Inverse folding.
């Protein structure tokens, strides 16, 4: 009884500790694929497919090593297997944090693993952001309104490895993006950890899966997706701070003021407040209480 009471009070505290988690998908937990949103399957371009079939599907399965994963599969020539998340739910003047854990059975030119897709001002800015292969280099691309998709970051990836991506997207008119790869904050191609731009001109929503790159059979595996309004919401999916999921008991409440995110404690270096544990701020490049 006491334990139950403790558990429920710990759960009640969670929203205050974590900010607001808008989406939380875990294959290990056995979550239904629909937790991610709406399924989008397309055979040839324009030929929408209403439900999974043998040559085109997204289903809870295992990766080749036997680890539970959402398995995306497309035969040659089939163009889309994606989940459209938070449809029409994203808004202007907000900062979204997105964590995405995946591995690849296929690496091929033009395969798109993630889109931040515009649905209203499509002519001006069809795909504000995407993660797309250029040969075997995964690129994070930005399409400014009226512009072309332009690489901001890239890394050569391979099959059979688990990768963690973290994206920060600020939807103000003068917005910004930040990017984490395997838990490390990345510098964009121009040397900065932040790129300013406009990423939300009407209604832009996140999509996870496999789009284009249809010259070959495609298999990809998604383990975890988290979307929230604070970096801490998505730490696990983004692989930040060596965060490991506890599959046993409820989380032990952390005494206020105690630093659990090593390397991000009082006195550690930071670029901004998101780099610091607790509600600490980044003052002169160092995590501080004020
Ligand atoms: C976002 O903020 C700008 C500047 O403060 C404001 O003009 C605009 O109306 C806001 N948009 C929304 C949807 O709240
Ligand atoms: C990189 O480009 C962005 C604009 O896209 C800008 O905000 C940022 O200041 C640039 N950084 C450097 C070091 O040039």
């Amino acid at each position: 009884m006491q334990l139950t009471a403790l558990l429920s009070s710990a759960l009640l505290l969670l929203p205050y500790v974590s900010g607001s988690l808008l989406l939380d998908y875990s294959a290990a937990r056995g979550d239904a694929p629909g937790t991610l949103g709406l399924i989008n399957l397309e055979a040839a371009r324009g030929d929408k497919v209403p439900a999974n079939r043998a040559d085109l599907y997204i289903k809870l399965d295992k990766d080749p090593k036997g680890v539970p994963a959402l398995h995306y599969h497309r035969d040659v020539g089939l163009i889309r297997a994606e989940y459209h998340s938070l449809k029409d739910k994203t808004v202007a003047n907000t900062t979204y944090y997105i964590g995405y854990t995946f591995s690849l059975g296929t690496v091929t030119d033009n395969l798109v693993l993630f889109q931040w897709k515009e649905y209203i001002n499509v002519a001006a800015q069809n795909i504000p952001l995407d993660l797309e292969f250029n040969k075997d280099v995964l690129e994070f691309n930005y399409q400014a309104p009226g512009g072309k998709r332009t690489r901001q970051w890239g890394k050569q990836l391979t099959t059979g490895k688990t990768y963690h991506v973290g994206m920060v997207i600020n939807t103000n008119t003068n917005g910004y993006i930040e990017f984490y790869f395997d838990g490390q904050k990345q510098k964009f191609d121009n040397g900065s950890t932040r790129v300013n731009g406009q990423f939300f001109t009407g209604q832009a929503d996140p999509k996870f899966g496999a789009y284009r790159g249809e010259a070959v059979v495609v298999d990809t595996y998604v383990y975890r997706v988290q979307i929230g309004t604070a970096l801490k919401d998505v730490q696990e999916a983004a692989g930040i701070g060596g965060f490991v999921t506890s599959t046993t008991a409820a989380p032990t409440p952390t005494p206020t003021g105690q630093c659990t995110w090593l390397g991000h404690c009082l006195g550690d270096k930071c670029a901004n407040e998101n780099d610091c544990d607790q509600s600490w701020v980044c003052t002169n490049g160092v995590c501080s209480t004020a």
Observations:
- The pocket of 2-acetamido-2-deoxy-beta-D-glucopyranose (ligand 1) is lined by residues 92-93 (CB under 6 Å).
